[in-house]
Amino acid sequence: MNLYFVRHGETEKNKSKCYYGSLDVELTKEGILQAEKARELLKDVSFNKVYVSEKKRSVNTAEILLKNKQYKLITDMRINERDFGEFEGKGHEELKQLYPKEWKAWCEDWKNASPPEGESCIQVFERVKSFMDDILKLEDDNILIVTHGGVIRSVYCYILGGNIDYFWNFGSNNGDISIIKYEYGNLYIDSITHV
């Protein structure tokens, strides 16, 4: 089985360097171009299934990737980006000013602490784990999964035995294609391509 993970194209919020996950934002012109470049790299792959997060940046990226091809998009909230709660749409400096106590707790325990009304990194990992457990039960050859950077990093942690400590050991740029293979009970990262 080949799992093709694609991170959605760039958005204005990516450019502004703020925290956002649950905000539903559009692709920029650059984000559209990234999706088109990824489409060119994947043009010869025939997918059995296509999964997308609930966010329009993922759906739009998938639609560009699959232009002129007939695929049903399967929406799964387990591959939504992390919900940053009250931290949504804000940057480091603003958070330090508005939420000094919560910001400090978050910085001291990035795995378990949650922004107010948001999710912890562990909570995101647990839903991504549930998604991956279900995907590995399928008997398909090629699956496309269009999602978010935090989800893809969580997938890498899943591959590395579920150790969330590896979360910051990988990058995931907008438009990146990560090919994960599942063969003979072994799951591994086959390649990561920057577009």
Automatic annotation (TrEMBL):
Is the keyword Cytoplasm assigned to this protein? no
Give an example GO biological process.
Answer: glycolytic process
Question: Active-site residues?
Answer: H8 (tele-phosphohistidine intermediate), E81 (proton donor/acceptor)
Return any one Pfam family short name.
His_Phos_1
Annotated TM spans: none
Query: Does the keyword section mention Nucleotide-binding?
Result: no
Q: Which domain of life is it from?
A: Bacteria
| Family from the record | Belongs to the phosphoglycerate mutase family. BPG-dependent PGAM subfamily.
Name this polypeptide is given: Alpha-ribazole phosphatase
Q: Which organism is it from?
A: Clostridium aciditolerans
